[in-house]
Amino acid sequence: MNSRALFTRTSLVLLALLLCLLDYGKIGIGHYASAQTVRLPLKKVYLRDPIKVDQHELESEEEAARRGLSTQNVTMTNYLDVQYYASLLIGDSKHSQTFIWDTGSTLLWIPLNNCSSCPSSNKHTPSGSWSNTGVRYTITYAVGEVSGVIANDNVYLTSSSGASMQLLGVDTVSADLGGLQADGVLGMGPAISSGRPGTLLVEQLKNAGVIGANTFSVEYTFRDETSSILLGGFDTSKVASESAFSWIDLKTTSHWTVPLKKMQYGSTQISIDADGGTLDTGTSLTLFQTADFTNLWAKITEGKTCGYLSGTSTRACQCNSTSDFEEILFQFTGYNAYMPVSAYITFIDNSVSQDLCTFSIDSYSGDLGNIVLLGDSFLREYYIYHDVDGKRVGLYGRTTSSSHLLTYTTLAALLVFCNFLA
Ligand SMILES: *[C@@H]1O[C@H](CO)[C@@H](O)[C@H](O)[C@H]1NC(C)=O
Ligand SMILES: *[C@@H]1O[C@H](CO)[C@@H](O)[C@H](O)[C@H]1NC(C)=O
Ligand SMILES: *[C@@H]1O[C@H](CO)[C@@H](O)[C@H](O)[C@H]1NC(C)=O
After folding, report:
1. 20 to 30 A from 303, CA-CA: which of 59, 83, 261, 316?
2. Which residue's alpha carbon is at the smallest distance from atom 6 of ligand 1?
3. Which pLDDT score, from 0 to 100, does residue 269 have?
4. What is the chain's percent helix, strand, coil content, to nearest 5?
5. Is the dihedral of CA 73, 78, 83, 86 positive or negative?
6. Which structural domain, as residue segments, surrounds residue 137?
7. Strand order across the 405-406 sheet
């Protein structure tokens, strides 16, 4: 097999595995009658010890976090840098299932034993603690949808720490989610829109006393490092203090969306319609609405030989080094977030002809409401602190390895995987 065919095949596989799990609010089939969840107003807990109050010694969350107060550290499995997942234990059987921890949606869904269209074979059989509401509901993601029945059950991080959750027991999954590597999806959006079902795991764990604060931090990395989500705080060995983050208030609480003022490619401003950037761990790439992407792509490809990998919809250019490209700047209110070249291109080591690189930025079609979808390829550059009650996110720049060469070894491994799937 010549190398060209090898690349083509590989790209096709990768394409099928990319996710775009943004629940953008389309009302699904079925009807959810009323909001059955009582949401308790939560106050931030700054104090632990009443004696300290008398002495006027307030302990901040960060000080408490430094003492190791009630955080839970979850190590994520990284599937080819395009899907990140970790397990939860479901129900009183404490059945382990894996989930994409998705900041772009709010509902937890698990595949049920009567789901024949579910891509996973690890399905859940409801047991004693399962309580079915009988209400059917559909989650519509930017790509794909799932349907099932709203139920209540206990969900555990470890066998001894868990909380009660309202979730979706899924019996139908659309074919475009066939590449999902996890069994289900855990929605981690900042708030559940009114009239929608579900409970938020972080809030429930906080209420149950498992974690100390209604916050979580995401550190997604390339495969050569460990990815993790810390529930209830941030890792003070990685970011020294809360003030070390650059804080951005959310534009809307339906998603982790921050106001986007301006975008640049190198020093050139790119004309965009988008006025928000949505942080979404459930989306593999960084995606722009079509017109915005067209403007950016024109700059990126200026003076270069670019096109598609033959027979695929994967964009590629001839390129020799990262210096052929420039970094992308997102100007949020009060903070410039950079996406370095190494974050959005992947070199394909092509010994036969001119080297090629592919991109982890692309366009989405359809109307998600003037946003740039900041997926895993953007998120890997930052340690991100999600403050649910404060309705804000803190970004802290990580330093990542400078280039990620897709070698023949990797390609061969992918090809084996592809044959296995077929
Ligand atoms: C699948 O099982 C659930 C839970 O027992 C039930 O509510 C749902 O109606 C079933 N779906 C189908 C298609 O039978
Ligand atoms: C959480 O786990 C990750 C990966 O195993 C590790 O790098 C990190 O230091 C841990 N953080 C805390 C606070 O335990
Ligand atoms: C890459 O390097 C080769 C050989 O030095 C050169 O011919 C080619 O023009 C370069 N391509 C780009 C896109 O810079």
Report:
1. 261
2. 149
3. 97
4. 20, 35, 45
5. negative
6. 69-216
7. 306-308, 315-318, 356-359, 345-348, 405-406
- State the pLDDT at residue 375: 95
The pTM (predicted TM-score) of the whole model is: 0.83
Q: Are 48 and 210 in contact (CB under 8 A)?
A: no
In a domain, 225, yes or no: no
Residue with tokens 């049920």: 112
Q: Which two tokens stand for residue 228?
A: 């993790």
Q: Is the CB of 320 under 6 A from ligand 3?
A: yes
Residue 221 included in any domain: no
Q: How many helices (H) and strands (E) does the chain have?
A: 8, 26
Q: Which pLDDT does position 32 carry in this prediction?
A: 36
Q: Which residue has the higher pLDDT, 408 or 128?
A: 128
Rounded Cα distance, 230 and 241, in Å: 15
Six-digit token pair at 395? 């970004």
Atom of ligand 2 nearest to the CA of 238: 9
Tell me the C-alpha distance between 313 and 14, whole Å: 11
Q: How far apart are CA 106 and CA 171, in angstroms?
A: 19
Does residue 27 sit within a domain? Answer: no
- Single-letter amino acid, residue 409: T
pLDDT band for 49, please (50, 70, 90 cuts). very low
Q: Three-state SS for 4?
A: helix
- Active-site position among 102, 362, 376, 387: 102
